[in-house]
Design brief:
Length: 165
Amino acid sequence: MEKTLVVYFGGQNPSQSTMTKVAKEIAEMTGADLFEIKPVHPYSKKEEDCVNEALRELDSNARPGIVEPLPDLAGYSTVILGFPNWCGTAPMPVFTFLDAKQKNGELAGKRVVPFVINAGSGPQNCITDLKASYPEAALDEGSSFISGKYDSAIPLALEWAQTIM
Ligand SMILES: Cc1cc2nc3c(=O)[nH]c(=O)nc-3n(C[C@H](O)[C@H](O)[C@H](O)COP(=O)(O)O)c2cc1C
């Protein structure tokens, strides 16, 4: 049976983020399993401090620790991967997750469908950076939604999810 996994990073305040709401709704709607990428050291809930933390990690190409165990992707035909745009690219915990899966050979030929929540600047390099780092994955074009604070990201994301299933 075809199985789908929704993997998401909920940003600096996951319990309240648009990303978490969207990921949960997509999983519910599609009957997919759900996995949250949780950083071992949570980011500051203050946006300005969090931006500085994210910029430091980006500058050093860091791979911050994430809470294990991680799901085995072998059991899934499609991985829907959601995260917020952080400073023009994917947050580094997303790279930590994908590096671990790359190391195990789990990304080879795997259909990965990214979706990005952003505050107005679109996906920027979020998807192209993943394509460059994980060329063995079958990465879809993905999609990008303006945050719920500014637009109706959730209904748009649900509509989009129906088109990829
Ligand atoms: C560290 C950090 C960097 C961000 N960088 C960008 C950015 O470059 N472009 C953008 O559109 N939004 C950026 N944002 C906004 C996030 O994408 C936004 O938090 C996301 O859309 C989730 O919104 P929410 O508050 O509705 O959950 C950034 C947010 C943080 C915390």
